[in-house]
Amino acid sequence: MYKKTTLKNGLRIITVPMKNTQAVTVLILVGTGSKYETKDINGISHFVEHMFFKGTKKRLTKLEVAETLDRVGGMYNAFTGKEFTGYYAKVDIGHFDLALDWVSDIFLNSQIEKKEIEKERGVILEEINMYLDAPMMYVGDLWEKLLYGDQPAGRLIIGEKENILKFKREHFLNYLKDHYTSKNTVICVAGNIEPKLAKQKIQKYFKNIQTNLPKPKLKVVERQTQPECLIHFKKTDQTHLCLGTRAYDLFHPKKYAQTLLAALLGGFMSSRLFMSVREEKGLAYYIRTSSDSATDTGCLVTSAGVRNEKAEEAISLILKEYKFLKAQKISEKELQKAKDYLKGSLTLSLESSDSMASFYTGQELLTNEILTFQKQIKEIDEVSRDDILKVARDIFKPEKLNLALIGPFKNKERFQKLLRI
Q: CA 303, CA 287: separation in Å to the nearest integer?
């Protein structure tokens, strides 16, 4: 069973003992990301994450930072999202102290040197180019741009090239002062540990974390009165699209019904859209539907890559399934299949120490509440056929419908006219 402790400085510590593993994961999650950025510093959350691997007061070079855990076969990385930034290390239990020392060192003592900033600009510019050359990934960014426009939620996590080229060292230092504080940070240790000792060690290694109040993020504003479409022209061999609707955030009572609805549509190989679009019509290799819920936004979206000449047919098929689910109840058998799929996936996803750390830390950071595995299973089981129908009728409305598309097309109207539900 996990245990949460909040220190006097506001730092939250979560320990998750796991006896059937020889691994331990240390994960730091900070409540900041691209939603916390103004337009002039868009991309800095991600840039900061990169800079934490370039040298500290103790490990002076990026080679020293990298080889510390390489020498013991450890796994380590970082990631940036809209509402959080994370840093983690996973090692065998014999190197627990080394992992804590390393993670705390990069988190608290990174030098952010000017010469390393200049070098890393090129790395991030190439990362941006990589995404632009990968329409399967980039269409997801266009989807969020379509939904939220020129506000933090609609901007790229990685930032625009213009910003990356102009950031100076003071931008990084000011950002860290504003956001990297004890009061919006959660540290989790999951694995074969003794919880009390792990907590004591975290307190030791993170005793110098800054304690000022972090700056809040701006609230997302959503305005939509009709179906919207965003077309990005690119000479591709395949059309990549995101088609879906605005939906519920993390605090909505129907969020589990929304997740089940997404699974029914395109969550697994026997789901409705996988069978109709791929298996029966042969239009796509990949097609999936996902439910995305953040603290103040939410959506349900179907992503697919289809033959260019069949894009309109695929869009119509997706909308046909949306319409069906808002017109009548699904069978109890189909709902149970989706429930069993979600419960099984959740069970399998929590077998490793790093996944357990993410499970607990993400909930605590974003909602200030942790639902255990058993409680989440109960929430899934309590969703009824009526709940699915109500959610479908609520979210599958014209004024919530959106389509983002990348392909060799310039005529937006040909797709806009399809958006009827």
A: 6
In the annotation, is 49 catalytic? yes
Q: Nearest 5 degrees, angle CA 182-CA 184-CA 185?
A: 65
CATH number of 228-416: 3.30.830.10
φ, ψ of residue 7 to 5 degrees: the values are: -75, 170
- H/E element, 44: helix 44-51
SS3 content of the chain, % helix, strand, coil (to 5): 50, 20, 30
Neighbours of 22 (CB within 10 A): 12
Distance from C-alpha of 373 to C-alpha of 79, rounded to nearest angstrom: 24
pLDDT of residue 218: 87
What percent of the chain is predicted at pLDDT more than 70? 100
pLDDT in tens, 382-410: 999 999 999 999 999 999 999 999 999 99
Tokens describing residue 187: 């540290």
pLDDT at 341: 98
Which residue in 37, 49, 116, 364 is the catalytic one? 49
E-assigned strand segments in 31-179? 75-80, 85-92
Question: Which pLDDT does position 295 carry in this prediction?
Answer: 97
- The pLDDT of residue 420 is above 90: yes
The answer to whether residues 357 and 79 touch, using CB atoms and an 8 Å cutoff, is no
Cα distances (Å, whole numbers) of residue 340 to 179, 269, 366, 404:
40, 14, 26, 31
Q: By the 8 A CB rule, do 15 and 195 touch?
A: yes
Using N-to-C axis directions, what is the helix angle for 255-266 and 373-381, rounded to 10°? 70
The CA distance from 101 to 152, in Å, is 34
Distance CA 266, CA 276 (A): 10
Cα–Cα distance between 404 and 227 in angstroms, integer?
A: 11
* Residue 389 and residue 329 in contact, taking contact as beta carbons nearer than 8 Å: yes
Give this prediction's pTM.
0.95
Residue range 295-330, pLDDT digits in tens: 999 999 999 999 999 999 999 999 999 999 999 999
Question: DSSP code of 110?
Answer: B
Q: Which residue has the tokens 């910003």?
A: 163
Instruction: Note the helical H segments in 90-113.
Output: 96-109
- The tokens for 60 are 């002076």
The domain limits of the chain are 3-205, 228-416
* Fold of domain 3-205: Cytochrome Bc1 Complex; Chain A, domain 1 (3.30.830)
